[in-house]
Penicillin-binding protein
Amino acid sequence: MTNLSQQGKNSKKAKQTKQQKNSGWFYFHIVIRVIQSLLLVVVSLFILFGALGAGMGAGYFAYLVEDTKAPTKEELEGDLENVDETSHLAYADGSNISAIDTDIKRNSVSSDEMSDLLKDAVVATEDEDFYQHQGFVPKAVLRALVSEVTGIGSSGGSTLTQQIVKQQILSDEVTFERKANEILLATQVERNFSKDEIVEMYLNVSPFGRNNKGENIAGVQEAAEGIFGENADELSLPQAAFIAGLPQSPIAYSPYTNTGELQEDLEPGLDRKDYVLFSMYRNHDISKQEYEEARDYDLTADFQGQESSDNNNERNFLYNTVMNEALEIVAQQLADEDNISSEEFAEEETYQNYIQEAQQKLANGGYTVNTTIDQDIYNAMQDTAENYGYLLDNNNQVEVGNVYMDNETGKILGFVGGRNYEDNQFNHAFNSTRQAGSAIKPALVYGPAIDQGLIGTESRVSDYPTKWRQGENKGDPIVNATNKGTKTFQTVRESLEHSSNIASYHIYRDILDEEDDTSFVYDNYLKKMNYPDTDSWTYESASSGVTEVTTLQQTNGFQALANDGVYQEGYLIDSITDSSGDALYKHKENPERVYSKQAASIMNDLMRGVIDSGHTTEFKSDVSNLNYSLANADWVGKTGTTDDYKDSWLVVSTPKATLSSWSGREDNQGTDRDASKRTAQYMSYLANSIYQANPDSLGADEDFELDDDVKEEEVSEFTGTKVDDNDTVEVDGSRMSVPSDTTDSYWAKGTPPGPSFKFGIGGSDNNYEDYWKNGPEDNNSDNDD
């Protein structure tokens, strides 16, 4: 019983154990089934959402590229091989002045002219799957997109094909739309070009840093020549690896500075070279032995030494001046496109940013900058400065600036920036500001006074000794070039021909006093002609030409008078066109009436006397010695000198053109009293050379004529006032008759005043008493200005 009982217990226990085991397996199977079911659901959901995601992704991709038309092979070829186009400067007739300097030197070569080592190095480093993919690698694109969204990991993902698309067709902006278009275009490139053609294009358009002249370079041929002095198909393995590593960061890895000197720290580029070599070894392009030998090779010994750049070969006054104006034009256009206000544009940082952008466009856009410069005239002017500049100063210390301008349009037909560009690059025609001397008198003093009806040609102006009433020179005598006054009342015509500083002082004060506004002349006359905005115009000393101006500004002032009183701003650039000939910029004339026709024609009549009389310049007789026909042209103009003859001016006009000259020492030191004579001699040669180059431009057969509305008034020769048979005036308690001799006086506005004791402009009572008693003695003496 005991045994049976024990066996029963054992049997029962075994049964329970088996049941427990069965129960455990049951639950285990249940768990497994649940997990399997969950996995099935998860996988099903993953597949479902993956399909949905793929569909949505495909739909989104289609949406992003819906506006992108698949280009043809010809279109792709044009875009991919379209490297930066050279721009040019052109003369008025379309002939070439110069190519515009570009900041990138490039020389494309065929695949056969590229080392296989170089091509292998680029592929191994930039796109190891290049020969397997069809333009893009999906996993790399996904990795890049995840990185873009999360900010985690590398954002790399562009194949070599995508890189060339980005460089040549698309921008560098980081957007999903741009990336989608990049992928689409990359697949089109792969369909239309062989792998070798793609590598060739990539190596021809990619930037490779700087060469040993400090110039930015692109394309492997320029890289091979500029770094190692080799052709692209002659590179050694370490040289090829070094060049292949440059496009990722061309400037950082470049061995040269912007002056062509070797960088102090060459390690970044050399480390990059070692990485390229390892990539080639990993890609089975080279053996381990080749890898190690190339890695250990001292590549620094192969770098070329510094050389001088060839970029300045065509630099001269013309190139620099035209480029400066073109940069201003394009920069302003770019700012206008961005809705930048004039105030914002004037800010230095903003201005420089747009100038830099303009520089890039002009250098690489394939533009043509069409100038107003007549090639024959310009060359003739340069030859004159070179061959006859010695007339200005035998010691070659005197510099010169000349501008030749068409009166009707403001076109600058030619100029001289200086005597020798290699010695001095400062442009004395456009950039140098010097005191104007008496050459300012027509625009500042006589022109406005005649235009306002304050004087006629025979009005009398005091040339008696007088003193400054204002400023730091208050109480000092006003002096003419050769005297302190001629103790008489000169006619307006005489005072201009003899360039009396005292007379111009009185006339200028009369204008300012009459208008009760010291800014009147600047605001109503000079401002319209773009003379500098300065308080010096409000001072009485302005009448003697103390304000600094440029040669161009003076030329434009006389241009306005020669052009019936209408100012046309001088300009050098007529248009800027693209490679298709479409105008990106076209000069628009903006005529500004400054003086009335009557006043301008009277001023030209007065300035004809300046040239014909020879009191202050021998220009006409000097021209006659060279070319009698040219001397008979209707020349008008004005001279000017400053204290110690630091500056010598002569500006002359014919009805068709204006020619100006400034000369003086660069250090602003004085010269001598023969400066005006030397200027006249030089200008006679300059005018003659222009006439020989293009006689029509001068209009030597045309004449200035008085406007029909000019009033020709009969006046007393003695006083310049109206004539009356019974005219008498009281002088020192006695009545005196006005002398009966008469002359004609030209007036633009108003009429001459009636006779009176104080008949003229300026002068004290004592001066008038002296004049009435002694008459207009011929005390005029020729001044130098």
Summary: DSSP finds 27 helices and 23 strands in the chain. Residues 101-302 form a domain with the Penicillin binding protein transpeptidase fold fold (CATH 1.10.3810.10).
